[in-house]
What we know:
α2 packs across α3 (127-137). This protein has two domains: 22-275, Alpha/Beta hydrolase fold, catalytic domain (Rossmann fold), CATH 3.40.50.1820; 279-380, Tetratricopeptide repeat domain (Serine Threonine Protein Phosphatase 5, Tetratricopeptide repeat, Alpha Horseshoe), CATH 1.25.40.10. The chain has 381 residues and is an alpha/beta fold. Mean pLDDT is 85; it is low at 1-18 and 291-298. It has helices at 60-70, 99-113, 127-137, 158-167, 178-193, 218-234, 250-253, 255-267, 272-275, 279-292, 300-312, 316-329, 334-346, 350-363, 368-380, and strands at residues 22-28, 33-39, 46-49, 74-77, 119-124, 142-148, 204-209, 238-243. The chain has 15 helices and eight strands.
Amino acid sequence: MKKFYFAFLAIFSLSLSAHSQTIDTLVNVGGLNMHFNIIKGEGTPILFEAGGGDDSSVWTPILERIHQVTGTTLITYDRSGFGQSELNPALKNDSDFDIENGIKELETGLAKLGYDDDIILVSHSYGGLYNLLYANKHPKKVKSIVLIDATLSDFWNDDFLAMRDMFVDINTIPKGTGDYYLNFNYNEIMRSLRNTQFPENIPVTNIFPDKSAPVYPEEYANRWKKVHVDLGNKNNNVTNIIAESSGHAIFNDNPGLVINAIVKVYVKTLDENQQNVVLQKALDNAIDLTIVTKVHNRSEHDLNTLGYSFLQTQKLDKALDVFKTTTILFPESANAYDSYGEALLIADKKTEAIEMYEKSITLNPNNEHGKEMLLKLKKNN
């Protein structure tokens, strides 16, 4: 039974060399050395933006798996004053270390590395504002954006900025650090970006938790979630995905969802022939993630949605394989048997479909969809 908020995993592609080339380097971007880490590949590169206060290492756990499936170039970097990147000694005023300057440094680094053409952007939290600015400066080059519980431009109204000032004391943060300059310029950055929207021509996948910011005051959490819901509801180029049972760092709590969302937007940059290559790799990836996170029962969603994506692309044999695998990995899931029953029915295997629906109803007596389908099947037999 397809009862999720999202449908995110399509056919993936591109063959992959056995050994990927990784480049860890410092690039002079005009007075400072900026740290980049690049996993080399073929295809439209993907740039990852970390959240405020974080460096590029936060992306490490998911990069290799994304590369294994896509084979494309993955780029992470440390913003000025974070990780292994220096601060620009030529900047004299605290206000010079703002997000506009950060974008200029990023543009310079990408140009020197040869990645200043078509690109896919991925961001977390405060990094979403970097995606927003970069996309508005380069609307023809940015092919797609994936936001992971990103800070949105309309969240920080003046009341919430005043609330933030009550909890953030700039005098307690060591001056001359990336954290200091981020917090010094934070309010002005939020005011300057207010009402700035993503270009309408760029597809945006907006992933956010079902219970956003639970550790913050209720009014904060409610507003955070509202602006995310509104982003998808009010913009035709934005697709919302709700990450159930996840916290702010969704890529840690539900890596399968994030990886699959990134892979899906990457696939859309490929031609039809490439899109039909290595379907098994996508299935293997989903199964591996399911086994890794099985204790949390998270990636059942990934496999179930993968099965439906195969149904939608008329890959019935693949869909049956996925749904059967899901029942094996999650034998206590009524939804897994219901979905398998639906696929078996499409394959005109009514006897097996009846068996799956019966198992689903045994596990969940309140499965009205299963009861309805079972009644129809037995009536027609």
